[in-house]
């Protein structure tokens, strides 16, 4: 899910694409018992779009997220969206958080805007829960300009 190797987060977008009906994964272990290779099969197995709790797909998602799943690259996907002029802002405990937009992509599941949160290569374990407010504005969907806001609370599940 980190998908830091592609700016368009295509792997993540396929994994989280709501119409996906089937996917598969397989691992090959080395003689030492560590993971040697992984293969993922997702593309081409879709059906009708199901009802979901939100009309968009965000990673990390709204709500509580273990710090080890809050990668530096965040994303927001919305069907038929045009992110060409979209603006993403984040606040960490009420303070602006620097970020860099890395992709405004279509294809590979739903259209998506992706950004890197400045200052993180991997997320540190927080001493207390940290809430981030994400605002995605100026998104055009089906001819209408829309804005979205949600909160992600990064937690340390061992605390």
Brief digest:
The chain is mainly beta. The strands form three sheets. Strands 4, 6, 7, 8, 11 and 12 form a six-stranded mixed beta sheet that branches. It has a four-stranded antiparallel beta sheet with strand order 3-5-10-9, with no helix packed on it.
As a percent range, the share of helical residues equals under 10%
Query: How much strand content do the residues show?
Result: over 45%
Rounded radius of gyration (Å) = 17 Å
Instruction: Give the overall form.
Output: globular
Helix count equals 1
Question: What is the fold's blueprint, element by element?
Answer:
Layout: H1 10-16, E1 24-29, E2 35-41, E3 57-59, E4 63-66, E5 73-78, E6 81-82, E7 87-92, E8 95-97, E9 99-105, E10 111-117, E11 130-141, E12 144-155
Parallel strand pairs: 4-12
Antiparallel strand pairs: 1-2, 3-5, 5-10, 6-11, 7-8, 7-11, 9-10, 11-12
